[in-house]
Amino acid sequence: MIGGGNDAFIGAIHRHAANMDGKIELVCGALSINKDIAIESGRSLFLPEDRIYTSFEEMLEKEAALPEDKRMDFVTIVTPNFAHFAPAMMALEKGFHVVIEKPITLSLEEAIALDQKVQETGLILCLTHTYTGYPLVKEARKMIQDGKIGKVRKVYVEYTQGWLSRLTERESAGAAWRTDPKKSGKSGVMGDIGTHAFNLAEYISGLEVTELCSSLNVVVENRALDDDGAVLLKFNSGATGVLMATQIAAGEENNLKIRIYGELGGIEWHQQEPNSLIIKWLDKPMETYRAGTGYLSDIGRQNTRTPGGHPEGYLEAFANIYRNFAATLAARIDGSSVNSDVVEFPSVREGIRGMAFIENVVKSNESTEKWVKYEI
Amino acid sequence: MIGGGNDAFIGAIHRHAANMDGKIELVCGALSINKDIAIESGRSLFLPEDRIYTSFEEMLEKEAALPEDKRMDFVTIVTPNFAHFAPAMMALEKGFHVVIEKPITLSLEEAIALDQKVQETGLILCLTHTYTGYPLVKEARKMIQDGKIGKVRKVYVEYTQGWLSRLTERESAGAAWRTDPKKSGKSGVMGDIGTHAFNLAEYISGLEVTELCSSLNVVVENRALDDDGAVLLKFNSGATGVLMATQIAAGEENNLKIRIYGELGGIEWHQQEPNSLIIKWLDKPMETYRAGTGYLSDIGRQNTRTPGGHPEGYLEAFANIYRNFAATLAARIDGSSVNSDVVEFPSVREGIRGMAFIENVVKSNESTEKWVKYEI
Amino acid sequence: MIGGGNDAFIGAIHRHAANMDGKIELVCGALSINKDIAIESGRSLFLPEDRIYTSFEEMLEKEAALPEDKRMDFVTIVTPNFAHFAPAMMALEKGFHVVIEKPITLSLEEAIALDQKVQETGLILCLTHTYTGYPLVKEARKMIQDGKIGKVRKVYVEYTQGWLSRLTERESAGAAWRTDPKKSGKSGVMGDIGTHAFNLAEYISGLEVTELCSSLNVVVENRALDDDGAVLLKFNSGATGVLMATQIAAGEENNLKIRIYGELGGIEWHQQEPNSLIIKWLDKPMETYRAGTGYLSDIGRQNTRTPGGHPEGYLEAFANIYRNFAATLAARIDGSSVNSDVVEFPSVREGIRGMAFIENVVKSNESTEKWVKYEI
Amino acid sequence: MIGGGNDAFIGAIHRHAANMDGKIELVCGALSINKDIAIESGRSLFLPEDRIYTSFEEMLEKEAALPEDKRMDFVTIVTPNFAHFAPAMMALEKGFHVVIEKPITLSLEEAIALDQKVQETGLILCLTHTYTGYPLVKEARKMIQDGKIGKVRKVYVEYTQGWLSRLTERESAGAAWRTDPKKSGKSGVMGDIGTHAFNLAEYISGLEVTELCSSLNVVVENRALDDDGAVLLKFNSGATGVLMATQIAAGEENNLKIRIYGELGGIEWHQQEPNSLIIKWLDKPMETYRAGTGYLSDIGRQNTRTPGGHPEGYLEAFANIYRNFAATLAARIDGSSVNSDVVEFPSVREGIRGMAFIENVVKSNESTEKWVKYEI
């Protein structure tokens, strides 16, 4: 693991997720650029002293030098956005598979470079777009693929949070990383959560955005980057959509919701109650599909651990990404194969589309033209 | 009543609503332009034969000629949109107060003309924008007025229906009134339901839209008017919003929802579960206000009939408009007064803003500029 | 109307319900035993002076003496429980059809006497057990009748309220009517709301209780009658059930819920969200039936006024009872007929079963034996 | 781990839960009484060959013989009910701390014997009553302890499942363990899920049951043990309650719900939506407490891993029990201490009360007396 020291949040989430199924073991780490934190963190995670590294370069060098059966199988990168690209490139160059926290990189350019390296090396890159790990998200995608709701006409996706309703001390301090576009990217709200909404919309609908019209706002005074926005969408099939993302919706927690309507019915899924998938039909009663039940399709059933009524949540969705990645990697190692329709996870393609989304939204926001082409 | 014969839908709704509280009695009607239907409808409503009229002109003439204590007190107009203006003007000219089904007229121009006549005559005009009749809608408005959630930052309002998911026979018939802008107005979805969403947003937030960016779609092939659309909004206070209205969301019934976020919290109300008003707070647990309870403010309490847990619905909301109108009219007649903060109803102002909304949305839709000024 | 003066609650509810559909007109009343209130109330309801009566005896005498086309068609009795029997008997004797607020009488004995008089006279008696007026309650009954969920196995019904969580001033005053079993009946909570739960369970399930085991509690100190209780139930089919009724569930409003499970699935209905009926299936996704939709059966569709998504509530359920009664009465008057499978309302049978329920629950509560036979 | 081979369900759940926080490592196992399954399971869990045991006796002997820093710290017992007692006693005798899947033993007698051994040895025994591991269950308990809803008056707890709605092949086969009271215990539904409901009720309310009146049913023909039941409860404080447990509620998944009413308000929690805790108040709006938020008390906040809106579920609740047990054990090992108000888990006391509950429910069911004393 690169990043994820005791002072970081997302690293712990990755460890919970990777641990859960007993298929992945943390064997080494460069857990912080602060040497003391790196060492202390490694110890608290029961790492052997000689595999607690103090820089990613050191780790990648030394691990690559170990005999094949002793060295790590893959590396997880959980550093801040601006520090994804360098370790990911180096890891690929040294022959390690890579898991990266989203967003994949700081810019579209970097994402494209990473893609080329992945194609060149044939290694596996997994991008932890958590929300596509939920079983009922996968079930929804399958239903639409199978034509259950007919041709898709409308997509509404929204991601509302309230935790940036006030300017925090950290932000108001001049040097906060949020104020530095070199560290945070070109959009605040769209980079942080808008990309999740975008990814979810494309993943479930099976469509691709082709044009957009966005409006971004800095709602909280003195904030350096936008904290709110909305985007009108056009998809390649002729369907249209609306994407709303905000971090100033006081009182909201992590309210990612999606609704997709086709000719025959609509699906609705709420991340905060992820074990229900609502299907509304034109001519018959609404149905609620539940996680863990026997009537789901393969992809829905195999991405759970517990039977219906034993709620799974965010960490299990996250763990599904790790579990599917690990199964894919294990198959690669032992020369077998997995059913990639069911055992799947986001990769560099999703990373590129997400980075392009951010860049196009920013471009549209700055334009007086209504519609901007989505370009990569 | 003008319009509302046995073959019409909305007339019956008006009668349910007007009847409910026992303060209004139907005394005469020109219920259809079809003479037979007019007569048959009048009889089935127990009207005396001599007050069943076969044209609105006849009715207004004859009623105006009756002695003051015998003639009707006001007229309700429930004809199709294009037939609102003429009877309304004539009624005002003859000295009758008027209730009109929404939208107030076919065009903004007509609405403005009606406004001038209302001001000139001093008569009361009530526009039945039903959804503002709900007690918890009124409570929400009051909470925002009182600053409970702080300065408003964001408004999301949506109105999704699915009943136009298919082209109906009536529509596909060449001559259907929907295909004729002279009868239906300039926008399908925005005229029919978008205006409700707009009205609700302005009513609860207390703000006014100043700029907008819209996109309208004809989703169902061969439909003559738009059946889907979305609008980005800017308000006079600096707040922003998104309005979504669609009639092709297969499986949706009459799903009008609004969320408004301020600095301290957000309110959320769903028309399909109208007896709950959700308040999410930045730093404390979410609250659910319930209709009919003692902790509501005056306006919330006085616009119900039943105690908490005895659900009131659409007809009661509609009846609140009639009840408040009737109380205001009764006070006018006997020279007393009502507390117009509590006993209130939509009027010609809301009609004008709604007509201007439609016209500006259509204008924006046709423009390649992102933002269009909301102009009256 | 007998009872229901300006100082009473339930009379107004009856008038809202009776007014709503424009088929019933209030023509006379003995609205209070207090002469001043009777007169003032009659005037405020726009009754003609000569039909404002000051006792039910006077009203029934004088109305019976009017020519047939001038006198009232039926009488509604909305007095307190102990004052139901006498006016109902007299009305029947005078040849008037009767609507009675529930509970039908003060004792089972009286209910049986009323039944005999109804059978003797052939007149119509309608008991306003409101909750069976909801369209989705009727739909649920129909589904079970049609065997959709298979043979019924389990019934859970509960009615929780919180408004008696504190001893009110009125109660603590020595003379309050609640302390006087002659006025209030033998059980507080079971008489007031337990009977509704019981009625709903038998109505929807189509079963009859045959044995029961009850426990009643006086939770609030110094209260004269029980305010809480639970009953284990056995039904004639072999199914079992649990009935919970309480008025000391602080924070609850009017929370009547029922769940009935059969071999294939279960139905669930909540009075506070009456426009949804949940069907859970053994092997397929849960369904939500919605009021006002086209896929409902005749009885479900014909007991609404508005399309799906336009919520109807308590008053509409109440109005369905009046509307079905009025249609039945109108058919009787003009010699036609109605489809009594669809146009139905509770009558004296339900009254008798409810009174017997109260008496048997009280008997069981006083017994140390576990099971008591339900006897009439 | 004893039990939990590849052919078992609950063992995997325990491993997910124990793995999640990275504080517990599986080091050895006697995973099945079938030698082949034991070995294969051990390998698939990456255990070293020499610590894959084929009987619990072998494992406990050999691990006890290892040097202190090499041997396992505790043992988890996930065998069927009838095989809990022997390994637990032996483990305690050999000096190992113990985690046991619920129910603790097959009989109350065994539970008491285990208690004596725990007291004698001073070792830690943790009983995995999962549902008390949920953060909002802990928060609810804390609120009631702190008097927030006043003195408790009423407890409703229910646990409905539908998966036993049909007789399964396994059951209908004569030799199935369910038909053998020596293996399954004295009650089907109460042993399996009724004890969870009972445990939850006592845990949250802080009260103890003192008398009960039960009725158990065998609903599905030819089933050997009861699959449905209900119990009226009296608590030591004078409060009363109702407990419903069924496994024939077709369409229900794992629907454990509890409602507790006090003088001032009521709490409501649903296991299937575990991240919300509803508080209804007598005189003010209902509140919804959410997991992961800052306004919770210490115990609520410290038993989560993720911020509000990132749902945690059944496995996290389970993991909380392991995490709290592990923290307590680690403190014991290194001589420090934990705040046992916050870092707590069910133990042998809960096991004894649960076993006594089953025995008293069965006794009451067989009695014609209404009330039976709850006796240990």
Keywords for this entry:
nine-stranded mixed β-sheet; homotetramer; alpha+beta
Description:
The structure is a homotetramer of 376-residue chains. With 376 residues, chain A is an alpha+beta fold. Chain A is 36% helix and 19% strand. The first copy, chain A, has helices spanning 10-19, 35-44, 56-65, 85-93, 108-121, 135-145, 169-172, 181-184, 189-205, 298-302, 314-334, 348-366, and strands spanning 74-77, 97-100, 125-127, 152-160, 209-217, 228-235, 240-246, 255-262, 265-270, 276-281, 286-290, 372-373. In chain A, helix 4 (85-93) packs parallel to helix 5, helix 5 packs antiparallel against helix 12 and helix 9 (189-205) crosses helix 12. Chain A binds chain B through residues 149-150, 153-154, 156, 158, 162, 165-166, 213, 215, 217, 219, 228, 230, 232, 240, 242, 244, 246, 248-252, 259, 261-266, 279-282, 286, 367-371, and chain B through 149-150, 153-154, 156, 158, 162, 165-166, 213, 215, 217, 219, 228, 230, 232, 240, 242, 244, 246, 248-252, 259, 261-266, 279-282, 286, 367-371. Strand 11 (286-290) of chain A pairs antiparallel with strand 11 of chain C, so a sheet runs across the interface.
